[in-house]
Write a structure and sequence with these properties.
Number of strands: 19
CATH class of the largest domain: Alpha Beta
CATH superfamily of the largest domain: Spore Coat Polysaccharide Biosynthesis Protein SpsA, Chain A
Mean pLDDT: 96
Helix content: 25-40%
Low-confidence stretches: none
Structural class: alpha/beta
Order of helices and strands: EEEHEHEHEHEEEEEHHEEEEEHHHEHEHE
Catalytic activity: 2-C-methyl-D-erythritol 4-phosphate + CTP + H(+) = 4-CDP-2-C-methyl-D-erythritol + diphosphate; 4-CDP-2-C-methyl-D-erythritol 2-phosphate = 2-C-methyl-D-erythritol 2,4-cyclic diphosphate + CMP
Distance between the termini: 42 Å
Bound molecules: cytidine-5'-triphosphate, the ligand C[C@](O)(CO)[C@H](O)COP(=O)(O)O
Keywords: Isoprene biosynthesis, Lyase, Metal-binding, Multifunctional enzyme, Nucleotidyltransferase, Transferase
Protein name: Bifunctional enzyme IspD/IspF
GO biological process, one term: terpenoid biosynthetic process
Shape: elongated
Pfam families: IspD, YgbB
CATH topology of the largest domain: Spore Coat Polysaccharide Biosynthesis Protein SpsA, Chain A
Length: about 375
């Protein structure tokens, strides 16, 4: 094993990026951007360890994609994410990169490694060839450098440099602040950081997402409970009984959530909202669905259509079908033509036929968010 650990920072919110998918989750064919970046760098050097820093909400999902890497929960800021990851680093050197710099050329990685003894932190930079004005005054552009990642640092020095409350925007600034030494190498325009949507036009190594469709199935059953408000698909149903459950018992929304999670390979509703957690007691299931929708869009999917069947001897579903369809379409942010609601009785058979409860089965179809069209 080598003495260099690689940290890929992927815990950001992509606020400035402005697309519905986070940049780390854009699909390149079938690979999320973060995995593409990790594999590309991994193939160039035998790292001691590869650490992926993720948001808390996406950590378990990321683990589905790879067994080799170590996944660490990030923090509020880039620096906090880096600090969290550094706790897991034991090697002498650490290379830290932004997932947002997706197209780093091979030569940069190799130069960083080759020149690692030259200073406490090795940093790729670009010189500026335009005139530079700072606070209304033209300054000597020879003194201006644009700092990129990855940066390679001595682990103990970077750890020490980050024992501060000052927020630095990169590793080298923190090391400089404790009078550590910096060695600059030539950066590359290809290492441009994806910050705004328009940056996608200047980055050329990214392949378009595959046009695959992904299908998920959801199924849920709830027994009736007297003297409780019934909710079905987020709509109040006018009957003197509701559903027995830890939450509000909206069996339709629960089935829908499972279908959506199934389609993107993210487990099931209980993994996101355990029924042992008091936080979810009597919760409005629309809130749970909204959280799942946000997750699905964040991790790079779009919803194609939903088809569901409610099996109920009672109550009568027909009077509520249109309302349910409209509500689900609005919660999913899709047009109502892509939501289909079916209802059937159980022909008086079994527990549903005996009017003891209701079951809902849902099929959801997703596709990757096509960022090339933006
Ligand atoms: N709390 C944070 C914030 C940022 N990052 C990572 O730091 C890098 C640089 O951040 P930036 O490009 O600003 O990404 P975001 O923070 O996602 O973007 P924005 O500021 O627009 O929300 C990214 O790889 C990002 O994932 C991180 O790991 N943890
Ligand atoms: C670390 C960095 O990429 C160096 O240029 C940059 O400072 C990150 O800034 P951001 O605001 O966190 O994107």
């Amino acid at each position: 094993m080598s003495n260099v650990t690689l940290i890929i920072l992927c815990a950001g919110n992509s606020t400035r990026f402005g697309l519905q998918a986070k940049k780390q989750w854009l699909r390149l064919e079938n690979s999320p951007l973060w995995l593409f970046v990790a594999k590309k760098i991994q193939n160039l050097y035998n790292f001691d360890k590869i650490i992926i820093t993720s948001s808390k909400e996406e950590l378990n999902y990321m683990k589905n994609f790879n067994d080799e890497y170590e996944f660490v929960v990030g923090g509020e800021t880039r620096q906090q994410s880096m600090k969290n990851s550094l706790q897991k680093v034991e090697s002498k050197y650490v290379m830290v990169t932004d997932v947002a710099r997706a197209c780093i050329p091979k030569e940069i990685i190799l130069s960083l490694i080759e020149e690692k003894e030259k200073a406490d932190c090795i940093v790729p930079v670009l010189n500026v060839n335009d005139t530079v004005i700072y606070e209304e005054k033209t300054i000597n552009r020879e003194n201006v450098k644009l700092i990129q990642t990855p940066q390679l640092s001595k682990t103990n020095i970077l750890k020490k440099a980050l024992e501060t409350n000052i927020e630095f925007t990169d590793d080298s600034s923190a090391i400089k602040a404790i009078k550590g030494t910096i060695h600059y190498i030539q950066g590359s325009k290809e290492s441009k950081k994806l910050t705004l949507t328009s940056d996608l036009n200047e980055i050329t190594c990214l392949k378009a997402p595959s046009k695959n469709f992904f299908t998920g199935i959801g199924y849920d059953i709830h027994p009736f409970e007297e003297n409780k408000q019934m909710y079905l698909g987020g709509i109040k149903i006018d009957v003197p009984y509701g559903f027995k459950a830890h939450s509000d018992g909206d069996v339709l929304i629960h089935s829908l959530i499972d279908a959506l999670l199934g389609a993107c390979g993210a487990g099931d509703i209980g993994e996101f909202f355990p029924d042992t957690d008091n936080k979810f007691k009597n919760i409005d299931s629309k809130i749970l669905l909204e959280e799942i929708i946000k997750f699905i869009y964040n991790v790079g999917y779009e919803i194609v259509n939903i088809d569901l069947t409610i099996t109920a001897q009672q109550p009568k579903i027909n009077p509520y079908k249109i309302q349910i369809k409209n509500k689900i379409a609005s919660l999913l942010h899709i047009e109502k033509q892509f939501v289909n609601i079916k209802a059937t009785t159980a022909e008086k058979l079994g527990f549903i036929g005996r009017k003891e409860g209701v079951a809902v089965q849902t099929i959801a179809t997703l596709k990757y968010y096509d960022w090339t069209k933006k």
